[in-house]
Amino acid sequence: MKTILLITGRILPLSAQGIRYNNLIKYLKNGNRIIHLTFDKSLFSLSDIDNYEIKDQFLIDFKRRLIRFLFKYINLIFPDEYRYLKNNYLHALKTISLKYEIDTIIIGMTPFSFMELAQKIKIYYKSFKIIGDLSDPFSFNAQIINKNQKIKNKRQSYELKYLPFFDIIIVLNRKIQKYYSELLSGYGTIISVVEQGVNEGFINVNKTKETKKIFKNFIYAGGFYKGFREPFQLYRAVESIDTIVLHVYGAIKKQYRGNNLRNIIYHGYISQEELITRFKDSDVIVLIDNAYGIQVPGKIIECITIGKPILFIYENEKSPSLDYIKKAGNVFLCKNSTNDIVKSLGLLLNSGSNIVDTFDPTPFLWESLAKDYSSLINS
Q1: Residues 170-212 pLDDT 10s
Q2: According to the 3-state scheme, what is the secondary structure of 145-160?
Q3: What is the pTM of this model?
Q4: Which fold is adopted by the domain 3-198+365-377?
Q5: Which CATH number describes the domain made up of 200-360?
Q6: Alpha helices by DSSP H, the chain
């Protein structure tokens, strides 16, 4: 049995990180002792394990907010405000290590400044295996790809300074793995992939009934971003076909809402449970891929596993999303242009019941991914 300490920042239960750790720890705690150190356990705690938080919560949160204000308006704090709470985490770790014989520490990143924790931990606790769970790439993050090279170089130098102190870094797809394997070549740090998983409620909901011959209700769930994931070509394509309706879910900003659209309905944000029901009731799922970068939108794997026909809109021929999408037989691919979308919609609408789902969701169940994680812990 291993004693594992998970360190997290200020995260919420329904955030991508919150969902990830809740599901992974549910399985990892079988046969292991798990301890959790977080920023504020009233915001995020894991069930049936010991949860700890950093001390002097009010003063620390005030300090964090002040630093964040300076970061936003003066832009002097790099990489984020949590860098100045590092000693609070190390002090809490010292207290926890006196109570438990820790074997492995998993550090959840973001925040990216948590990379610095690995260096300090290796100084004082040389025997600990340190695993970094990297939610997104830092030096090749989609937010900075189109910014100047100086920013990229600064971030890359930061990673090269601190990431070699990790024994293992876990990333979300193979293109991110390739990027960090090349960046850290020669340092001995292992880069492994453990994707963001799916709950069983998503899987193969379409198996319970025959594929429809008429496709009317299309669903899109997620956000839109300028130059990165835009809906306007999709809107024009949908408006050109009278027989379909697109239902859009999420906190959609005003600039991404069309005017006087007949075939598009905005529903706002709904819970994960409600979203599963909406997916079940829909005929076709619409996905818009990131226009650039090596990150995979969070909904991609979830939506493939549902088993419904998918209209997949993309621009980047080298997108990591295609590694997953092309494994499914129920996907209609098209570029993000009105003409190409209309063409794929025509093929989809005329396909009848000839759509076959060939995607095997088993490797992406949280239970399967937890086994992969466990193998890394025990390696």
Answers
A1: 999 999 999 999 999 999 999 999 999 988 777 765 554 445 5
A2: CCCCHHHHHHHHHHHH
A3: 0.89
A4: Rossmann fold (3.40.50)
A5: 3.40.50.2000
A6: 16-28, 57-73, 86-99, 115-124, 149-162, 174-183, 232-239, 272-281, 299-306, 321-325, 338-349, 366-377
